[in-house]
Specification:
about 300 residues, alpha+beta, D-amino Acid Aminotransferase, Chain A, domain 1, D-amino Acid Aminotransferase, Chain A, domain 2, nine-stranded mixed sheet, seven-stranded antiparallel sheet, about 25% helix, disordered C terminus, binds pyridoxal-5'-phosphate
């Protein structure tokens, strides 16, 4: 696979208030965020020129920063507009949008009270994460070697860069063993989430999903809960132990990148891509593609 490095592309990135040429969107090696993980980010997706739930994502970005003790110096309206400006400048209609905010280089040490806060937004083409056929066969997952930390051990409600250290380690472990992703337990041994997506289980026609008390309450997760309830399904948020996979018929994961992706296998357990999963894959696709032009979206 030939990779096009992300620092060597044509286009524009929004950086601290305006667009700069893609290759010039740089920062110094003595940046607090690089050394101490003082960064928060979002992953958003544009469908036909409309960013799905752009306001919720950018509000979560502001909230994530507050949880890490810093204030992003832009309003949510300004960040929404900047996301659309980036899409337009790069000629993207179907793509991924990545805002990131971080503490700069004024102070180098654990304390960074005087550091400047930066915000950048990039976007790139991203038609589909999995091909429709591969997605509907269901992905294979293994158990992650790392657990999600307790909410008094890490700022688990923030989409903070530092929380992804164990996700990258777990995803690499899965890929190196031939799996698509890894399923993480939490600090108590309950099922938590995948490395970049939430999880749902179907048991006897009812939809169950772990209570997000120590991991991200995904925007896709909340959308899928609404869609399931609208379709007349029962959705139960509760603590789920890994042994329950033995009495689970369907499993799927949800996220901005994964959308609704069926899971065929976790450890020794096998699942069907059943009717409930298929229905929610379809309903989610319709929802993200509904809503018309970019102008009506923000
Ligand atoms: C760790 C983690 N959990 C869950 C999600 C799903 O969140 P959302 O649906 O808001 O994209 C993501 C994706 O951002 C993630 O990185």
């Amino acid at each position: 696979m030939s990779l096009i490095p992300f620092d060597d592309r044509d286009g524009f990135i929004w950086y601290d208030g305006g667009l700069v040429p893609w290759r010039e969107a740089k920062l110094h090696v003595l940046t607090h965020a690089l050394h101490y993980a003082s960064a928060v980010f979002e992953g958003e997706r544009s469908y036909g020129g409309r960013i799905f739930k752009v306001r919720e994502h950018n509000q979560r970005l502001l909230d994530s920063a507050k949880i890490l003790g810093f204030e992003i110096p832009y309003s949510v309206e300004a960040i929404d507009a900047a996301c659309y400006e980036v899409l337009k400048a790069n000629g993207i209609t179907d793509g991924y949008v990545r805002p990131i905010a971080w503490r700069g280089s004024e102070m180098m040490g654990v304390s960074a009270q005087q550091s400047k806060i930066h915000l950048a937004i990039a976007a790139w083409q991203w038609p589909a994460y999995f091909s429709p056929e591969a997605r509907m066969r269901g992905i294979r997952m293994m158990w992650a070697p790392w657990r999600r930390p307790a909410p008094d051990t890490a700022p688990t409600k923030s989409k903070a860069a530092g929380l992804y250290m164990i996700c990258t380690l777990s995803k690499h472990a899965a890929e190196q063993s031939g799996y698509a992703d890894a399923l993480m337990l939490d600090w108590r041994g309950q099922i938590a989430e995948a490395t970049g997506a939430n999880i749902f289980l179907v048991q006897d026609g009812k939809v169950h999903t772990p209570t997000p008390d120590c991991f991200l309450d995904g925007i896709t997760r909340r959308t899928v809960i609404d869609l399931a309830r609208k379709a007349g399904m029962t959705v139960i948020e509760r603590a789920i132990m890994p042994e329950e996979l033995a009495s689970t018929q369907e499993v799927f994961i949800t996220g901005t990148a994964a959308e609704v992706t069926p899971v065929a296998e976790i450890g020794p357990h096998r699942f069907q891509v059943g009717q409930i999963t298929q229905r929610l894959v379809g309903d989610f696709d319709k929802t993200v593609r509904a809503g018309g032009s970019a102008a009506s979206a923000a």
